[in-house]
Structures are given as structure tokens and as C-alpha cells.
């Protein structure tokens, strides 16, 4: 097959947010553009910097982020992002001044990059790592506040939100930040900066979210490039793990010993935290479900604990090999393993999309921000998952796992998940939607180059 290397001889700068759920798709995007012939420089913060030796085909440049040791933490992701937006501005400007590149590609949350690019007369393309469906909700924040839906009030949780079906008030994004107003302001600001950009690159595919993409295109009036799922492109670059933590691959041989579609894979991503009481309800619910499970318990997942201290003595041993715990898993590989029958997820967008790509139905337990919207879409729009309703209690956990893994209801959901998996694969083939959007993205980047250099 003829290789499309139109990007040859052109360098692109991509700037990542240091959060795992943002870094992974940015590195995948870098690989995709590298496979189109572009030379790539990843611009990153000193905090949580990726390991360049894992990506020998990419170049890296660290921007001083000015974070103190206490500030360099993902415990409050909004506060961290606000600090980066304030402190990286001048260092980025110093770095970019005089560089000849067609455009700058940066994470949506790093909104400071838009005014920097404007000053330097450099077009900016945005990488939005969340879904268009949840971004549409973010774009509606001022209206939702004006109509009294935000901030969310306990007494209105079950009320439908008329402009955003099928969402109810309880599905609206909130963020547990020290400063409750900070999340609202961050979201409004990055959505505002979309309008000054040269386009938005999405890790999704058109068939999955066409109505949100159309609405956003109308509202923002910038080109949309839904070229996902990123991690499923056939790439010529790295195949190394893009995660900041080292995956424990021993779980793959444990999965090999389990029956087909029997295992519940449990992971709540890289930031979410739960209380000790919730942790114990999950543990007993899993134990009582009688299904085998692979559980990612990240150090820091349980508030106030280093790692597994709250787990009762002898808990795992009493299950006779039915449960397996790791600190971090090779998630994409796990989800594609035939033994995995369900994914109990917090519905971060990467996890949601990775599950869609493998046709694995979900048990949805969103924690904050866009996760609630993703969970609602998984359960009510795409019908590929069930929500853990009510309070997180062991009987509820057991009931939900059985609903998906054993009851008839689960068969329909599984079938929907397999159908969507097929669509996620077709869109990447020649003539498919993501394939065509990527083609336009490459052409548009190259034409930005000519207009940029004319402007200089
Ligand atoms: N992930 C992983 N191993 C784990 C847990 C998560 O590799 O044990 C990866 C997962 O594949 C996904 C990312 O970490 O790509 C988490 O991103 P997501 O958007 O789902 O959630 P966030 O961490 O941003 O809340």
C-alpha cells in the first residue's frame, strides 16, 4: 500500500497536559501525525514528564512549569491546570519565538496557549481529549447557570435538563476542587478559546457522536476533526506504553487462566479517589458476585491509605484465586483479552473509548467532571453499559454485576457493544469517517503552513 507521508519535511509542536488521561491521547496523536511523515516535538511540563527513551522517534522539550513540590500534584487537577496556565505562558513564548512551524497543537485545558499563539501569529489546533458529547455540556455551562441548573442542587438531581437530553441534573459535570468556582471558570475559559483556534481534533468517531459534533461546529464555527479512536490507528511509530506508571503485566497470564468473558475488570483511572468505606463495599460486592475480577488499586486510590491496608486480612486468599489485584494494568491489552466480560469503570473518556473499541460492556460509576456525561451516554444512548445506581453498597454491586454478566439484560447490552466495536473499526479503514477526517487534517495543517509563512 502506498504510504501517505505528506508531512515529510515539516515539524509539528504538540503540547501536553501532564495528566495521564490527557498525555496518553496526545502521545497517540503524535504517533498518528508521525506516521503521516511529520517530525514531532512534544512540549511538556517538567512535572510528570514523559520518558523520551520510550519514544525514540519523537523529540521532547521541557517547559519550566514553576511548580513547587507541594503544587506538583494531581490531587486537585483543576488547581494544577490553573497554575500551569499562569506559569507556563512566558516560557512557552520564549521557546516558540522564531520557530518555523505550520501550527501549534495543544491540549484544550492549556488555554493560555491560544493567546501565546495569537501574539506570535501562529495558528493553534486544539486537542480535546474529552468527548464532544461532554464538551457540548461544558459549552452550555453559562446557559445552565443562567437557568439555575448549575451549581447542582441536591433537591433537583432527578430533573431532566431540557436542552441536553437525556441528561438529568445529576449527570451534570462537577469537580471536587478546593475552589468550587475554579472548575466552572476553567471550563468556560477553554471553551471560549476554542473559537479563536484553527480547529479541534477529537479522539472520537463521527458515527458515535455526530449530533454533538454538528452542534459544536454550529456553535464554535471552527473545523472539527474527529479522527479517533487514536489508539487503533495502524502506526509506524512507537508501540510502547503511553502511561506514566509502569503496567504490571503479570495480570495477563492470570487472565489466560480464566474462562472466556468471565472476568470483571475494575479500574477507576489515574485520578479518582474513593473512601475506605466505599473501597470495602466494592471489595465485598466483587467477592459476593462470584465472578472472577481483575482490580486496579492504584496507590492513592483509597483516601488516607498508602495502598491495600484497609483490605481485610486473608480477603484475596479466601477467594481461591478468583481475584487479582495490580497497582496499574496494561489496560488496552486487558480489555482486548477474551477472558474479560465487563469493565467496571469511572468512565474517563479514554477508558470509555478503549472499552468501546474492544466491545466490552461497562458498569458505569462516574466520579466527577465529564465522566458523568460519558456514563449517561454509555448506559442510555449507546446502551452498552449499566449504571451503578443508588448508594455504593455491596448488595448493589453484586446485583449490578449479575445483571450484566448473568441476566438476559446483559446479552442485549453485550450485543450493542459488539456492534459499536465494529463501527469503531470501520471508521479507520480507507473511506471511513476518521480516515477521511485525518486526510483533511493533514491537508489543512499543510495549508496553514503556507498561510502562516505568508503572514510573517
Ligand atoms: N490506564 C492504564 N492502566 C490502568 C488504569 C488506566 O493504562 O491500570 C490508562 C487507561 O488505559 C486510559 C488512562 O489510563 O488510557 C486513563 O484515562 P481516562 O480518561 O480513562 O481517566 P483519567 O485517568 O483521566 O481519570
UniProtKB/TrEMBL annotation:
Belongs to the UDP-glycosyltransferase family. Coiled coil: none annotated. InterPro entries: UDP_glucos_trans. Keywords: Transferase. One of its GO terms (molecular function) is UDP-glucosyltransferase activity. This is UDP-glycosyltransferase.
